[in-house]
Amino acid sequence: MLELPSPPRVRLAEFTRRYAAAEAMARRYAAAVQAAEGTPEYERLAAEWPTVLAMLDKVCKACEVGARTSARAKRRRKGSPRAVKLHQVHVALVALEKAVDAAVAAAVIALLDATGPTASRRAEADEWLCALTSALNELEHSVVWIADEGSDP
Amino acid sequence: MNAEPDAWAPALGFGYWRVVYAECCDAVLAYDRIVATMPPGAVRGRLLELRTELSVRLGSAARLAELAATLYAAWPERDPALLELLADDPVKDLRKELGTGPPDPGLREALLDAREELWRVAEDAARLAVRLRENPIATDVPTWLSGLATGVATALAAGTPAGHLEDG
Predict the structure, then answer these.
(1) Residue A98 and residue B98: Cβ atoms within 8 Å?
(2) A34 and B97: CB-CB below 8 Å?
(3) Which residues touch A125 (CB under 8 Å, ≥6 apart)?
(4) Which residues of chain B does A115 touch, with a Cβ-Cβ cutoff of 8 Å?
(5) Lowest CB count within 10 Å: A101, B45, B46, B116, which one?
(6) Measuring CA to CA, how many Å separate B70 from each of A24, A31, A150, B100, B166?
(7) How large is the ipTM?
(8) Chain B closest CA to A49's CA: distance in Å?
């Protein structure tokens, strides 16, 4: 299941660490899905995996655009194209982290719920799954924004 | 990963989770040492029987710890590398957008419960051993043993995720 996109072939310079952070988040998401296997929440979490992969791919492209912009920009100042690209990628990272947090929380509840003696926490898991959808929507908007701007290198 | 957990060889891991799991192992090791001090007999035999069940509980604690180490690697913080990047944002410090730490809806609590239950069993065994040593002809040993067995049963009934990481 863990089929991450191929790492970018171009030099990402200072965006390398940004992409690595996004990839680590995707791996954490995959671990959450794996942990939820056999629970009712598994299907919903697994269903969002392609979206997470697509977002990671877009973050990768945004990093490529950012690296090109960065190479042209000599100085780092607020409002420069380079600074804007960095900020956009960071916003995408925040949205992806929120999505992964929600997925992990839903998976943990599902797992404990399935095996523990406590009362069902399906409602709480549902809330986290809604938070996951919401965070992925937010992420989708943020990377679409980057991609639109990134199409003019 | 299907091998019986060995308290003498804690599962791999790191940071906070490894420490908590090591404390679970310590409880089982304490139990082993207590049983080793007891004279051969029915009581010791019963404690050895209960040890098998403790291994099951320790195994579920190991799986919890491994899962936690995977999902919350930098507990109780977030990934420091990510925080560093977000702090370095040219527009504003984006760390605040994420809150202090990753939300955990009960994984840590489940592992701490396992640790507490294992320690309770080890303490009960210790009390039983001391009582037997002080009074070898004590008549209330069955009651103590029953209490100990109940503690082990409670630990097992608490349940923990089974096998979800074994296929990984």
Answers:
(1) yes
(2) no
(3) A41, A106, A109, A110, A113
(4) 159-162
(5) B45
(6) 11, 7, 34, 19, 13
(7) 0.83
(8) 16
